[in-house]
Write a structure and sequence with these properties.
The complex is a heterodimer.
Chain A (H helix, E strand, L loop, with lengths): L5 E2 L5 E2 L6 E2 L6 E2 L5 E3 L2 E3 L1 H6 L7 H13 L16 H7 L21
Chain B lengths: L11 H9 L1 E6 L1 H50 L2 H28 L4 H12 L10 E6 L10 E4 L6 E19 L5 E18 L5 E18 L20 E8 L2 E15 L9 H13 L10
Antiparallel strand pairs in B: 1-2, 2-4, 3-4, 4-5, 5-6, 6-8, 7-8
Helix pairs in contact in B: 1-2, 2-3, 2-4, 4-5
Classes of the chains: A alpha+beta, B alpha+beta.
């Protein structure tokens, strides 16, 4: 079992580290880094950010701000569910945990040029 | 602690950035955030010095005016002009010291965008940055140079104005190309245009006066270049862009379609160039808005 917490702001993907606990509030499997201990037991950064009794840290801050940023677009709740992206989706988009980048561009490449 | 901060206390990278007033080249995300953190502390120290210099300068101005009149009063009472002279010269010295301190503080000051805009953006996007790829950075820390005027013109005169002059200064603040973990790229570019309007006029009492007003027009461009060709779903990017404030466009880049969002901001101040900057949260929100327009399979919003 691997950690199911979705990291990232623009490119969300599962953490993938070996899971050591589960979120007592949403049931996700969590690694040590993404486990916050509090009054309701272990929690993922997302649940820890929205429930009392958990200490704030960098992960919970990021989770809270991400939820805030995505609220106008339907929130990020769907990203947290396992299987949100099917294998076919991922294959179609060539997405992996960390995809290989395209060959390096020429030095004079200006991404902003229109 | 920050008051005693000196150039020698900075790491070589930060020292080079402060001395050259620029950061360029390829940086990994963590190092860049660290460097910006160090420069943020330096800038905070510079801001403190600026505030102190302003206080000294104001004390000098008030003291000089008061001292000028006191000089005559004391001279008349003591029947000797030399007795009153120090009352004017001492605050005048403070005034000159204030001017010197202001100049020195301005010389070491860094653009506020560094701590208000860029560092928060890099921190928030830290998990999206490709761990093995470098961020290509071109960051201009020199700030506005009033000797390099991009354009100066006289504006039409109205009312009691005798002359109205508008000067424009351009500042290309930064260009960041951030490789993302999915193979795509997030590009951020910030540009500032400073507009200075100097107005000299005759007051109702017939005195000649002048006033200066500053405007800072900031353009923030966020662009997402996906790793593979995708069909952007502009309808998911929230309400239609307001034409005056932002522009959304899609541009072809090396066989893929990139989404670009330009947003415009205006800051105003009197006497000196505005120090306000676009908050980092606004810039992250721009990137999120672009990210939300990707198809779901490419990581877009629901």
């Amino acid at each position: 079992m691997t950690c199911q917490w979705q990291t990232g702001m623009l490119v969300m993907r599962e953490c993938g580290a070996p899971a050591t606990a589960g979120c007592a509030l949403c049931g996700r499997a969590l690694c040590m880094i993404h486990t916050s201990m509090g009054q309701n037991g272990p929690a993922c950064p997302g649940c820890a950010a929205t429930h009392d009794g958990y200490a704030r840290n960098e992960e919970t801050e990021l989770a809270a701000s991400r939820e805030e940023y995505y609220r106008p677009y339907g929130g990020v709740a769907g990203y947290g569910q396992q299987g949100y992206f099917s294998g076919a989706d991922a294959a179609a988009m060539n997405r992996g945990p960390v995809a290989q980048r395209r060959p390096a561009q020429e030095d004079d490449y200006d991404a902003m040029e229109t | 602690m920050s008051k005693q901060m000196k150039l020698a206390d900075l790491t070589p990278g930060a020292r080079a950035a402060v001395e050259q007033k620029a950061i360029t080249g390829g940086w990994d995300g963590r190092s860049l955030v660290k460097l910006l953190g160090e420069l943020e502390r330096w800038d905070n120290m510079a801001e403190e010095r600026k505030a102190r210099a302003k206080r000294v300068f104001l004390a000098g101005v008030i003291g000089s005016v008061a001292g000028f009149f006191l000089m005559f009063v004391v001279s008349a009472v003591m029947e000797e002009f030399l007795w009153g002279l120090p009352l004017f010269l001492a605050p005048l010295g403070v005034l000159f010291a204030g001017i010197k301190m202001k100049k020195a503080a301005r010389a070491i000051d860094l653009p506020n965008e560094l701590r208000v805009s860029l560092r928060p953006v890099l921190r928030q996007l830290s998990q999206d940055l490709h761990p093995e790829e470098k961020i290509k950075v071109t960051l201009n820390l020199a700030g506005i140079d009033e000797n390099k005027c991009a354009g100066k013109k006289d504006l039409p005169i109205w009312g009691r104005n005798r002359r109205v002059t508008q000067s424009t200064y351009e500042e290309e603040l930064c260009s960041l190309r951030m490789p993302l973990t999915d193979g795509g790229e997030a590009v951020l570019r910030m540009e500032n245009t400073f507009v200075k309007v100097e107005r000299s006029y005759t007051s109702t009492r017939g005195k000649s006066k002048s006033k200066t007003k500053w405007k800072k027009l900031s353009t923030v461009t966020a662009m997402l270049v996906p790793a593979v060709r995708i069909n952007w779903e502009a309808g998911r990017g929230g309400p239609a862009a307001k034409r005056d404030f932002e522009k959304l466009s899609f541009v072809e880049k090396n066989g893929v379609m990139a989404a670009r969002l330009d947003r415009y901001y205006k800051f105003k101040a009197a006497d000196e160039a505005p120090g306000a900057a676009v908050p980092g949260t606004e810039i992250v929100a721009m990137f999120v808005r672009l990210a939300a327009m990707r198809p779901q399979a490419a990581g877009g919003a629901r």
